[in-house]
Each structure stands twice: as structure tokens, then as C-alpha cells.
């Protein structure tokens, strides 16, 4: 037991509280500090005696969240009070009514949005998705719910060290899946980048550490380079009498990792490890002219890449981001990204939504892209009757904000998601126009409804009263408004068919003497491979699943072989832990040793091999599946179904072989294939399953499937193959069997 110095802790609590008040002081109005004091005392009392997993007093967490709200998001008193109280209802005896009585309706509503739903969820639904939807419902009334939630999540990520590994994966994956994109959408770039970096630190620790080390090694060289790069610019800017600041900013670890993955290159080859940012202090009316003047100074000294100019000053991003980006060639032949913006733009880029609000009155009075987006989310919430999982899926589609700018026949600018079609545009104008759309004129030319819009297109929609939406439309629309409206129109017809299907299914199940419970329907869903019960009944109603198929379901015996295995009692992580602790002393699934204790399979979507970081996932009726933490499906599984994730690691002894894939790129020469195969088969005694080779204009590309013992074995093989003359690159690739 660690001895706790209560007096020292109390001093630390008071110090943190005073620090919070000092940071908030500039914007506090009369009575605010009294309200904050009251919230602090309430939180202290409610969380009295509670500790976090790290052992520190629980009150440290609400205080830290409140400080993030002030320092990093720029929020005011209401948010500080909500942050101090955000866990009170969820974790203590306090109720929403108590909060409303003491702090008023507004605070109570925010706390309610932040409080997780308790209770039992039907199989096939997701508690995390339901909670996320609940939180977003409050967004339509008060965006501060999301901002306080992001502060809460950021602090949880910063203190993730003290959590068990499976919780780390779950929380980190949920963050990358939902909260980092949400922070990006609200313009909170610094928070988004930190969340992404922390995600990488907990899911790909070795990769993260290697990138950090390599970025650190090049730090001095980089700083010298930045100094020499900006010297001539500073001289010129001073001569023009500019008030400005220049910063050299390294790229986030996560974005470097993303580049490495996308381009399949090592960290040394990621050329734009940093960006130069020039921030001009100027009046609102001169901003645009000043930024372009700075641009012309930069491009007088350095040649710009014409394909890399991004003008988000004339048309800001939908999250309010304004900046001018160009990539220029430095004197040493290196590409450098230069970002040019005003002080106001920089604050909006750093603090996002809250800063955007601060400047709202000065900037053009028409509704900003950010407000338009929030009102789109409101629409989506109001008319969305799909399952929470579908909702989260639609919502995520809304978060990635590559955009396309198009015009109406009258010249009004419309912003749509990247990849939007003429039909998306029609639904953006009005539901009726979308539902009756038969085609469009783009730049005076006739195009079909699935035409993909490009920046600057002028679009006129053609309609017919006889037209009505069909299932095919969902394949090519990308905006969630269009998707939701089409689903609504289709649902009316589908509901009728699904009701009939339900009647047929219930009748047949009674005949087959099968209990028509939720569990039965979940097994049926898995057996017929459909996502929801609604889809199941719809297929029965359509006749795609008939009564013969239902009979074959009754005769089907799922593969749960040995009676002693407790797979049948396992439905989530808790039941797994109970069962495995009964049979052995700890709650970790040891891959390679526990086959006789519990049923599990290695998943086909990422083919883990010993040495990979893995987790177990309890499926509906296929036992436990083992996934790599870097599996393409991992963030979604962990974010939506964290309660099904179990701790798993490789047993130390494994004589088994595992299938893995290697991609080899090189310059073709006589005898190259022979050299490659002899290293694999003769020198390292590795069995190959298949090999496909493609050569084109002297470039050789091959994919080899082979059996290895573990990641060390695979790394040794890669090192040896890279030494073969002519081989340029060898890398592991993910494959689906």
C-alpha cells in the first residue's frame, strides 16, 4: 500500500483550483467566481473519498477538464461549472434534478448530455453508440456539451497509463473513431492532433517511439534549416513594415505515421516533417490583401508548387478554418509547406468553435459553415429513427471535411462533402427537389443524377412528379441529409414488408418450436448475415429468406465442440472474465495455450501472428476472434462494442506456423526470383504457400504468402531479403483470405 499524505493532497487540490480561477479571471463577470466555487465544493463533496485508477483523488480529473476548457478551447463560466460537475450524476448519488435545483436548467441539460445511459441493451445494439447519440441530441441545444466532452476525453487520454491494456485499446479506439474527427470538425486542430498522437502511443507503441526518436534526432538540423529558410523572408517583411510572427511547426507523429503507411515509406523519406507558419497582425478589412502580399514575398524567394496552393481565405473550410497554404522549394531542394494567416484566423485555427464565436459579430453576418454544419446535424438528429450504430456511421461520414464548392443557377455558393453527386445537391436544396430529381444541368450540360460534382460547377436540378427514390440511390449519395431522406422515403414501403416478414417468421418459429426471443433473432441475424432485426424481417417479407431457410437454421449446429468449453455462456468481456477466472487464475486469454479452456479463432481480416499486439472480441455466435490492434476493423469494433473486448496475448511457447504476406519491390534482373526463393526456402527454411510476380519496364513487384513463427521471424526474413541485390523494399501487407 502506498502511504497517502492527505494534507499534501489537499494543498495540491487548492493549488489546482486557484490556478483554474487565475486562468478564468480575464472573462469572469460578477457572481461567476461564486458559482464556480459552488460547483467546485459540490464536486469535492460528491466525489469525496473516490480515487482514479492512478490512485490520485478523483477531484483532480474535473479540475483538469475545466482547465482544458479554459486554456485550450477558450470556454467561459458555464463550461467551467459543467466540467467540474460532469461526472457527479454518473458516479455519485446526485441526480439531474439536484443539479437543476442548485445550478439551473442550462447546466443541468449539459450534464445530462454528458451522463452515460445506464441499463441493459439488447443484443446487437451498442451502448457506446447509444451514449454518443444521446450526447449529440444535446448538441442541438448547446454545443458546449461536445466541447466539455472533448476536454474530458483529452484528459482521459493523457492519463491512460493507469488503465489496463484492454481499456486502453477501447478508449484509444473510440477516440480515433469518433472524438478526434469531431474535434477536427469543430476546428480544434491542436486537440485533434494530440488525440491522434496519444492513440498511436497506446496502440502502436513501438512505431510511435521510433518516430519520436527520429524526429528528435533531426531537431537541430531542422531548426538550423528553418532559421536559414526564414531569414530572407523576415528581412523583406520588416522592410514592408509588417507586424508578424513566424513559427516552425513539426508535423504530428500521427500524420507522419499516416504518410508512412499511405506511401509505404520509412520515416526518413517523409519530406514535409514540418511547416512554416506566418501570422500577420492586421485589421479585419486588410486581412485578405495582407495575406496575399505575404504570399507574393514568399514566392519571390522560393518557387511554389502550383498544384499545392490552397486558398481557404476566399472560401473558408466548413469548420471556420481560414488560411493560405503553399508548398515551396527551398534552396537545398527540399519542399516546405508555408501557411499564411492573420492573428484572428490563427486563433480560430487553434481554438476552433469558441474563438469563431468570439469574432462572430465582426465577420460577415451570413451563417458560417460551422453553424450550417451544426444545423445539418440537428436535422439529422430530428428525423433519424435508425439504430444508434447506423446513426454513428452516418454521423462519422459527416465529420471528414474534404469539401466541394458548387453554385446554384443564381450564383449562390453551396458547400457539399467531397464526392457529392447532383442528387446530393438536389437534397441539399430541398427534400422534395431531391425525391423528384431525374437529372441535372451542370455548366449547361445535361448529366445523370449520379454525376460527381467538381469545384466551381454550376448546377440546375431537373425534376419530375412521377419520380420516386429507390434503393440504388443510396449507393452513390454521400451527404447524410440525402441518405437520411432517401432512407425515410424507402422505409415507409419497407416497414410494411418488414411487418409482414415478422408475422411469417414468428409463425414459422412457433411451428419449429423455437422460442422467438431477442437471442433467437440475434442468432438468426448472424446465421443469415444481416445487420439488424429489421433487415432480417424485411428479407423474410421479400421472400429472400423463406420458410425452408428457417428450417435449415433449426437443423444447424454451431461449431462449439467440446462440452467443457464455456463459449456458450460467453456474451461479453465480463462473462468471459468470470468463466476464465473459474478455470485458471487470471483473466487474460493466452493464445496457443487456452484452446482447451475457451474457443477462439484468429480473425481473417488481419491475420495476426505471434508478436503482434492483439485483443480478443466476443462475437455473437462465432466464439472469440483474435484481431491485431492495427486491424482495419479494430477502431470500429472497439469504439462501438468495447464491452465485448477481452485481454489476449500470445503464449510464450508456440511451435505453430502462421500465414503472413510480404510485398517485394525492386529492379528486375536475371536470377532475382531464384535469390529471393532460396533465402526463403533454403536459408531460413520457411514454407511458401504462393507467390505472384509482376514485371513492367524493368520494375519487379511480387507478393509472397508464407508461413512464419512470429513477428521476429518475419522481421529477420525482411532484413535478409532487403539485402538481395536489386530489391528496393520489402514490407508486410494485410490481406483477406
Automatic annotation (TrEMBL):
- List the SMART domains: HDc, RelA_SpoT
What is the top-level taxon of the source organism? Bacteria
Name the InterPro entries for this protein: ACT-like_dom_sf, ACT_dom, Beta-grasp_dom_sf, HD/PDEase_dom, NT_sf, RelA/Spo_fam, RelA_SpoT, TGS
Pfam short name (any one) = RelA_SpoT
Which part of the chain is the TGS domain? 401-463
What CDD domains does the entry give?
Answer: ACT_RelA-SpoT, HDc, NT_Rel-Spo_like, TGS_RSH
Q: Spell out the PANTHER family in the cross-references.
A: GTP PYROPHOSPHOKINASE (PTHR21262:SF31), GUANOSINE-3',5'-BIS DIPHOSPHATE 3'-PYROPHOSPHOHYDROLASE (PTHR21262)
Similarity-based family? Belongs to the relA/spoT family.
The role this protein plays is: In eubacteria ppGpp (guanosine 3'-diphosphate 5'-diphosphate) is a mediator of the stringent response that coordinates a variety of cellular activities in response to changes in nutritional abundance.
Report the NCBIfam families cross-referenced here.
Answer: spoT_relA
Mind telling me what this protein is named? Answer: Bifunctional (P)ppGpp synthetase/guanosine-3',5'-bis(Diphosphate) 3'-pyrophosphohydrolase
The organism is Fulvivirga kasyanovii
- Lineage, broadest ranks: Bacteria, Pseudomonadati, Bacteroidota, Cytophagia, Cytophagales
Amino acid at each position: 500500500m502506498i502511504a497517502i499524505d492527505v494534507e499534501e493532497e489537499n494543498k495540491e487540490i487548492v493549488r489546482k483550483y486557484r490556478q483554474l480561477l487565475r486562468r478564468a479571471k480575464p472573462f469572469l463577470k460578477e457572481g461567476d467566481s461564486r458559482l464556480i466555487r459552488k460547483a467546485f465544493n459540490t464536486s469535492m463533496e460528491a466525489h469525496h473519498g473516490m480515487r482514479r485508477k492512478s490512485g490520485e483523488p478523483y477531484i483532480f480529473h474535473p479540475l483538469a477538464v475545466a482547465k482544458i476548457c479554459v486554456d485550450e478551447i477558450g470556454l467561459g463560466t458555464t463550461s467551467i461549472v459543467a466540467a467540474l460537475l460532469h461526472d457527479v450524476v454518473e458516479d455519485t448519488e446526485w441526480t439531474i434534478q439536484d443539479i437543476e435545483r442548485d445550478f439551473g436548467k442550462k447546466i443541468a441539460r449539459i450534464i445530462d448530455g454528458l451522463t452515460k445511459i445506464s441499463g441493459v441493451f439488447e443484443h446487437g445494439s451498442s451502448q457506446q453508440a447509444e451514449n454518443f447519440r444521446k450526447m449529440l441530441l444535446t448538441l442541438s441545444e448547446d454545443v458546449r456539451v461536445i466541447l466539455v466532452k472533448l476536454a474530458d476525453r483529452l484528459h482521459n487520454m493523457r492519463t491512460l497509463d493507469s488503465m489496463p491494456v484492454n481499456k486502453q485499446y477501447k478508449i484509444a479506439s473510440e477516440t480515433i473513431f469518433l472524438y478526434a474527427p469531431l474535434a477536427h470538425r469543430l476546428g480544434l486542430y491542436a486537440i485533434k492532433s494530440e488525440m491522434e498522437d496519444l492513440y498511436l502511443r497506446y496502440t502502436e507503441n513501438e512505431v510511435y517511439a521510433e518516430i519520436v526518436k527520429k524526429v528528435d534526432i533531426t531537431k537541430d538540423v531542422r531548426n538550423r534549416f528553418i532559421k536559414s529558410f526564414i531569414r530572407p523572408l523576415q528581412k523583406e517583411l520588416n522592410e514592408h513594415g509588417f507586424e508578424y510572427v513566424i513559427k516552425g511547426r513539426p508535423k504530428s507523429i500521427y500524420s507522419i505515421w499516416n504518410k508512412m503507411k499511405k506511401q509505404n515509406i520509412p520515416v526518413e523519406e517523409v519530406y514535409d516533417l514540418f511547416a512554416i507558419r506566418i501570422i500577420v497582425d492586421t485589421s479585419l478589412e486588410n486581412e485578405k490583401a495582407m495575406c496575399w502580399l505575404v504570399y507574393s514575398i514568399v514566392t519571390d524567394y522560393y518557387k511554389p508548387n502550383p498544384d499545392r496552393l490552397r486558398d481557404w481565405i476566399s472560401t473558408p473550410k466548413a469548420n471556420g478554418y481560414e488560411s493560405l497554404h503553399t508548398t515551396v522549394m527551398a534552396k537545398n531542394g527540399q519542399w516546405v509547406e508555408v501557411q499564411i494567416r492573420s492573428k484572428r484566423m490563427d486563433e480560430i485555427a487553434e481554438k476552433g468553435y469558441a474563438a469563431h464565436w468570439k469574432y462572430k459579430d465582426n465577420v460577415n453576418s451570413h451563417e458560417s459553415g460551422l453553424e450550417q454544419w451544426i444545423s445539418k446535424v440537428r436535422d439529422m438528429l430530428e428525423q433519424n429513427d435508425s439504430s444508434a450504430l447506423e446513426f454513428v456511421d452516418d454521423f462519422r461520414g459527416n465529420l471528414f471535411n474534404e469539401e466541394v464548392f458548387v453554385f446554384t443557377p443564381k450564383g449562390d455558393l453551396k458547400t457539399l462533402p467531397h464526392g457529392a453527386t447532383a442528387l446530393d445537391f438536389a437534397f441539399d436544396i430541398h427534400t422534395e427537389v431531391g425525391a423528384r430529381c431525374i437529372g441535372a444541368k451542370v455548366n449547361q450540360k445535361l448529366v445523370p443524377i449520379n454525376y460527381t460534382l467538381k469545384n466551381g460547377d454550376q448546377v440546375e436540378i431537373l425534376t419530375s412528379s412521377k419520380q420516386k427514390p429507390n434503393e440504388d440511390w443510396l449507393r452513390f449519395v454521400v451527404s447524410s441529409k440525402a441518405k437520411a431522406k432517401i432512407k425515410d422515403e424507402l422505409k415507409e414501403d419497407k416497414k410494411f414488408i418488414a411487418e409482414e416478414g415478422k408475422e411469417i417468421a414468428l409463425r414459422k418459429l412457433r411451428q419449429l418450436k423455437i422460442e422467438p426471443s431477442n437471442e433467437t433473432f440475434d442468432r438468426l441475424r448472424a446465421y443469415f448475415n444481416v445487420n439488424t432485426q429489421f433487415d432480417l424481417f424485411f428479407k423474410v417479407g421479400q421472400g429472400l429468406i423463406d420458410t425452408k431457410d428457417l428450417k435449415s437454421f433449426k437443423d444447424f449446429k454451431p461449431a462449439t465442440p467440446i462440452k467443457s468449453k464455456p463459449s456458450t455462456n460467453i456474451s461479453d468481456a465480463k462473462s468471459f472474465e468470470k468463466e476464465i477466472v473459474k478455470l485458471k487464475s487470471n483473466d487474460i486469454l493466452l493464445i496457443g495455450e487456452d484452446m482447451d479452456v475457451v474457443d477462439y479463432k484468429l480473425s481473417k481480416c488481419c491475420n495476426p501472428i505471434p508478436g503482434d499486439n492483439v485483443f480478443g472480441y466476443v462475437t455473437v455466435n462465432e466464439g472469440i476472434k483474435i484481431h491485431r490492434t492495427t486491424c482495419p476493423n479494430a477502431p470500429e469494433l472497439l469504439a462501438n462494442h468495447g464491452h465485448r473486448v477481452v485481454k489476449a496475448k500470445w503464449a510464450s511457447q508456440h511451435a505453430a506456423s502462421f500465414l503472413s504476406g510480404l510485398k517485394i519491390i525492386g529492379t528486375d534482373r536475371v536470377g532475382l526470383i531464384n535469390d529471393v526463393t532460396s533465402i526463403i526456402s533454403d536459408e531460413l527454411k520457411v514454407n511458401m504457400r504462393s507467390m505472384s510476380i509482376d514485371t513492367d519496364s524493368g520494375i519487379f513487384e511480387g507478393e509472397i504468402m508464407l508461413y512464419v513463427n512470429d513477428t521476429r521471424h518475419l522481421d529477420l526474413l525482411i532484413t535478409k531479403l532487403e539485402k538481395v541485390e536489386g530489391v528496393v523494399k520489402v514490407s508486410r501487407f494485410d490481406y483477406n483470405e
